[in-house]
Amino acid sequence: MVQGIQLVPPTNLPDRFRSIFPFPLFNAVQSKCFKTAYESSDNLVLSAPTGSGKTVILELAICRLINGFGMGQFKIVYMAPTKSLCAERQQDWHAKFALLDLQCAELTGDTDQGQLRNVQNASIIITTPEKWDSMTRKWKDHIKLMQLVKLFLIDEVHILKESRGACLEAVVSRMKSVGTDVRFVALSATVPNSNDIATWLGQTPTIQHLPAHRETFGEDFRPVRLQKHVYGLPSKGNDWAFEKMCDSK
Q1: This prediction's pTM
Q2: How deeply is 235 buried, as exposed, middle or buried, from its count of CB atoms within 10 A (0-12, 13-18, 19+)?
Q3: Burial class (CB in 10 A: 0-12, 13-18, 19+), 201
């Protein structure tokens, strides 16, 4: 028991999934989300500090999907804002899910034509919002691919408020509107309005009037506590000059 949360052991999963989680217990964040991530098909929005093990929640959602579909009957899309994060996830999941016969393929601006065949054959597609947007803008040309996507994983969902957020919003809205049965799992360490994102995604593809399941964890769940110091700076001149001075610090 940690902070009132009963820790869940990976032994609650089928034997074939246990190699993906090589530790005796899920941590508090993972245990609290276990029921929603693995035992239900509801959409999920998770806000938790960096280093709290949010990626495991995505892996639990993948395991849930594998249980419900045969090989070749589904595709999973993992979306992250940077190519470096995509490369890291590709390296990690290629090793983990190879044991389950799941192929991973990276689809970013660095992907050449020769690698596109790997993407077509892969069960897990790791991509960026911009690349997936360009692939699916004429979605009727890729209708077979779109219909196979059953799980859509969004990392760093807080970029919705940034300049690139419009692209992510367009991609998710497109995936929701093409009529396929897609489950969404969205993660962030810093999103302050996870309730708005949960309302936008909806509980399930057919129950859109209710929000997605939402879990929010504060700084108490950070594995290494941060010390915060506040420094005051004198304001001289106008706001523009003050902002420029702060940027230089």
Answers
A1: 0.86
A2: exposed
A3: buried
